Amino acid sequence: MTFKIGLLGLGTVGMGTAEILLDPRSRHPLLSEIEIYRVGVRSLDKPRPVQLPEALLTTDLESIVSDPNIDIVVEVIGGLEPARSLILKAIAHGKHVVTANKAVISRYGDEIYTAANQAGVYVMLEAAVGGGIPVIQPLKQALGVNRIHSVTGIVNGTTNYILSRMQTEGGEFGHILADAQQLGYAEADPTADVDGLDAADKIAILASLAFGGRIKLPEVYCEGISKVSAADIAYAEKLGFVIKLLAIAKRGLGEESKQSPLSVRVHPTLVPKTHPLASISGVYNAILVEGEPIGQVMFYGRGAGSGPTASAVVSDILNIAAVLKSTLNAQMLHPLLSCSHQDYCAIAPIDELVTRFYARFLTLDRPGVIGKLGTSFGNHNVSLESVVQTGIHNELAEIVVVTHDVREGNFRQALNEIRTLDTIDSIPSILRVL
Amino acid sequence: MTFKIGLLGLGTVGMGTAEILLDPRSRHPLLSEIEIYRVGVRSLDKPRPVQLPEALLTTDLESIVSDPNIDIVVEVIGGLEPARSLILKAIAHGKHVVTANKAVISRYGDEIYTAANQAGVYVMLEAAVGGGIPVIQPLKQALGVNRIHSVTGIVNGTTNYILSRMQTEGGEFGHILADAQQLGYAEADPTADVDGLDAADKIAILASLAFGGRIKLPEVYCEGISKVSAADIAYAEKLGFVIKLLAIAKRGLGEESKQSPLSVRVHPTLVPKTHPLASISGVYNAILVEGEPIGQVMFYGRGAGSGPTASAVVSDILNIAAVLKSTLNAQMLHPLLSCSHQDYCAIAPIDELVTRFYARFLTLDRPGVIGKLGTSFGNHNVSLESVVQTGIHNELAEIVVVTHDVREGNFRQALNEIRTLDTIDSIPSILRVL
């Protein structure tokens, strides 16, 4: 029995996928039963490092998703359209789908999975989060017996690379971003990465799997790293933290029903140096899952790149082929590989978040300033863990505050009051603390 | 549809398993279709924290494995017998089996999987390695598309706890072992842990899955941690290493065919501080898998304990239930969940290993000693990375040597020659370097 693949896209990931499928020796034996049947590309003439018979290539992607001989469509063209339409057409033609497209799944997952369940096909997406790191599959198959409390990830390699270099070199964001762009670690248009949008797509997908419900992407709170300064990294270091862009999905404390709101968010965060995520540096990704009774488990690896991402794509193909092979008269979809969520998770607004905060203030250098700060925080039930005057810059005193766990809404109200104090010059940084 | 479980054993892991199955809310919905049907225990009268209807309990374990109503037998009694016989009888009666028993699988895996394939049933073992950490399943399902180069793990929590404390406190092995025993982190008879036998069982299982062949346990080289001294930990620290008990399975360099010998071994190892495994401390476990094209991925979590291990056991139950549910008329076993290995992997003798070494010598304090050491190493093609005289103890000079990659047989021959030198007092430590 051979399973026929229609590959949409022959860019970095498509090429890596083809390389694995064309050279199956010393890999899982089932791979030798998987055949690249057609490949959709933008241009037939482009020189490519991978040798594929010319007859396989076509620029007519629509003809692939409707080809009756194809069992599995692999979408690795990226972007929203035509990827979304091609996925939906493939499903309508009864094809199983493997995709690496976090943007499409996080926005149109509802539409796509509803269609897939109706058509009785699988839509697999291991490559959408964490590159080659197996995290989607463990969430679906191994960790689901737990009551998941939280998923916390470093899921964007570009921002982790920039923050790691800021940490090591003491440089400023803009300078290191420019260098990362020259070195190819950041895109010419870095918005999706540095503003946290890519990480938001990914945490929406992870939250959906961890908490068994769909997630509305616009409800995911998202804050990027462009305002993180070298000064904050240095203060965080002194206080025992490193700054990481974390993507976090968390169930409300003590609330275990699926109806209780989740907190789903992306923001730069002070991470204690002893925390397992603190040592994840450079372009590496890691996802920490906490649940009952498993405790903490963490998955670590390269979060992007041709090889790792192709490994995830081909593992999805292999899983579909394995199920198809063992279930010729299947009654229903495999319940751990298919999507069984119909309902949306309730997501709490960011004001309801309970977390610690770090804030840096520039104030006039006068006696009583710390007292006034403390009073304003106290007026809004914000309890402080530490207040340190770290130095004098341009005749302004710099004060760094770390709070205990507080409701974000209360903290914001306290800041609004503090901004009206005549001794306060500015608040250059506000960051959350894990 | 309900799947009926026969649970053999109600110790720590059995109790944790029952706790999850008896309280399925906010876990995977399929768990509510899994029923604890009978529980085999040694004594009916023992008080237990988990409430199970008395009628479920029996001391007649044989009657469980032959009960026609039971779909899945869960073996969590541990030890070799009667565990092995009960597993084989369950298989003979057409039951699927979930086990946490690394000792039985590493010794009798051949017999058990041959029987399981003949009977058309699954034998699942996620809990046998790494507690709750999903590592068996990713090796079977996600990573198999890669050409695996190596699996390197910290897979024994007791020894990692002891080495971590030796590192932090500077204490000696014997003292910290005694304290670990008092605190419950080490068994009264610590042999299986400190001599590396438990880790050897686990790496045999991981190697089998990673390299697609069976492993003969006596061919796994095994060296424990009882000879690691505080002095070595201190020198390693100065040289930029920490000492960990690693379990390693590695394909020969440049040899990709399944017939080329593997190196499979357990020994204390100097791990560079920058290596991802260096920061795994205390009772945590981590398994690092390297392959092509995925690069490095690492799995991290608690390697033992009731909750984590039960999470792994129940995830195996869930996977079997999912397959059974979706494949009422299955043609064959699911190829990624069943065992497809019939052949044994060739394992190279330890003399063939190519690795770096660390060795500590006590010598007479005379000029020319380092020259003689260097000459002897050179005579056997052992190239040195560093030779440092670290101090004088009781009128003996202490010299620490780190080699480049050498064939272990050559290194041993050089040591034999060095032992005959009249300026050499003793060689208190020989350790491999990652």
From TrEMBL, chains A, B:
Its cofactor is a metal cation. Keywords: Amino-acid biosynthesis, Methionine biosynthesis, NADP, Oxidoreductase, Threonine biosynthesis. Its EC number is 1.1.1.3. Residues 358-432 form the ACT domain. It comes from the Bacteria. Pathway: Amino-acid biosynthesis; L-threonine biosynthesis; L-threonine from L-aspartate: step 3/5; Amino-acid biosynthesis; L-methionine biosynthesis via de novo pathway; L-homoserine from L-aspartate: step 3/3. Transmembrane segments: none annotated. Gene3D superfamilies: 3.30.70.260, Dihydrodipicolinate Reductase, domain 2, NAD(P)-binding Rossmann-like Domain. It catalyses: L-homoserine + NADP(+) = L-aspartate 4-semialdehyde + NADPH + H(+). Belongs to the homoserine dehydrogenase family. This is Homoserine dehydrogenase. It comes from Funiculus sociatus GB2-A5. The lineage of its organism: Bacteria, Bacillati, Cyanobacteriota, Cyanophyceae, Coleofasciculales.
